Every structure is written in structure tokens, then in C-alpha cells.
């Protein structure tokens, strides 16, 4: 049993896995921060979806006016949803990719480009920046995940 534990902890000695863990932690943290940004916008715009969230603004009709949508809150929510749609696949595919034995320099390129693209995408969504900036940053991140997927399949299936 302790031999199995030793083998699994050896992953942390693998530079590619450490790079994966680093950049995955960064994008997951960024995605988690989007929840805080959403909460900030809900509070500052006084736009809530649950009646209990409006209790501090009064009762009855005086609180109901805060049960509404707000374009800024919805924009943040769409950015967060986009993170979920793109970062979650990166986490899974990236793990398989890291375990498939890529060169460190190639793995770092994949991880860094994806992370940069997702961070830029968030700023492009929140500021907002004119298109095609947000669309291009999404496409770059998507292409990185697709590239890692192809390399995993090529390694595993000998394509």
C-alpha cells in the first residue's frame, strides 16, 4: 500500500505535471473569482433572483423591486458560464495530456496560451472590449484544448 502511495506522489516530481497543476490552479481560481465578481455586481446593482436575498432591503413590495435582472450582472454570469464551458474540459484533457508524456516546452506552451487566453477573455467580457477580441481569445483557448486532445488521442490510439 505504501508503495502505491509513493508512486502517486512521484507525479509531483514530473515537471509537466507540475506545470499542469500550476496553470490549472490559476484558471480554476480565476473561475472561482467570477463568483465573487457576480456577487459584487448583484450587490452594487441591487439585482437579485431569490426573495431571501432582498430581505435586507425591506419586506413585501419594497423588496420585490430588487428581484430583477441587470445587464451587468448577466454579462458577468455569461462570462462565468463561458469559463465553465471551457475550463472544465481543459482540466480533464490537460490532465490526460500531462500524463501522456509531452515535452515540457510544448506542454508549457499549451498551458500558458490557454491560461492567457482565458484571462484575456475575462477582461474582454467584463470591460467590455470590442469584438473580435473576446471571440479570438475564446478561439485560441479552444484550439489549445483541441490540440491537447489530438495529441492525447495520437499517443493513446497511435493515430
TrEMBL record:
Catalytic activity field: RX + glutathione = an S-substituted glutathione + a halide anion + H(+)
Pfam families per the UniProt record, alphabetical: MAPEG (PF01124)
Any GO CC annotation of this UniProt entry: endoplasmic reticulum membrane
Membrane topology term: Multi-pass membrane protein
SUPFAM superfamilies, per the entry: MAPEG domain-like
InterPro entries assigned to the protein according to its UniProt record, in alphabetical order: MAPEG-like_dom_sf, Membr-assoc_MAPEG, MGST1-like
Keywords: Acetylation, Endoplasmic reticulum, Membrane, Mitochondrion, Mitochondrion outer membrane, Transferase, Transmembrane, Transmembrane helix
Catalytic activity, EC: 2.5.1.18
Enzyme class: transferase
Location in or out of the cell: Endoplasmic reticulum membrane; Mitochondrion outer membrane
Origin: domain of life: Eukaryota
A molecular function (GO) term: glutathione transferase activity
Membrane-traversing stretches: 20-41, 84-101
Quaternary state and interactors: Homotrimer; The trimer binds only one molecule of glutathione.
The protein's role, per its UniProt record: Conjugation of reduced glutathione to a wide number of exogenous and endogenous hydrophobic electrophiles.
Name of this protein: Microsomal glutathione S-transferase 1
Organism from which the protein derives: Serilophus lunatus
Amino acid at each position: 500500500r505504501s508503495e502505491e502511495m509513493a508512486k502517486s506522489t512521484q507525479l509531483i516530481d514530473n515537471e509537466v505535471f507540475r506545470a499542469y497543476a500550476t496553470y490549472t490552479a490559476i484558471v480554476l481560481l480565476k473561475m472561482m473569482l467570477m463568483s465573487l465578481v457576480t456577487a459584487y455586481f448583484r450587490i452594487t446593482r441591487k439585482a437579485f433572483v431569490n426573495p431571501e436575498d432582498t430581505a435586507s432591503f425591506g419586506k413585501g413590495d419594497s423588496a420585490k423591486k430588487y428581484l430583477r435582472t441587470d445587464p451587468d450582472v448577466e454579462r458577468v454570469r455569461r462570462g462565468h458560464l463561458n469559463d465553465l464551458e471551457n475550463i472544465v474540459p481543459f482540466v480533464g484533457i490537460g490532465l490526460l495530456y500531462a500524463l501522456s508524456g509531452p515535452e515540457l516546452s510544448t506542454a508549457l506552451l499549451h498551458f500558458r496560451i490557454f491560461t492567457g487566453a482565458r484571462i484575456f477573455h475575462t477582461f474582454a467580457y467584463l470591460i467590455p472590449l470590442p469584438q473580435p477580441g473576446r471571440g479570438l481569445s475564446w478561439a485560441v483557448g479552444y484550439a489549445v484544448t483541441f490540440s491537447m486532445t489530438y495529441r492525447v488521442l495520437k499517443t493513446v490510439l497511435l493515430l
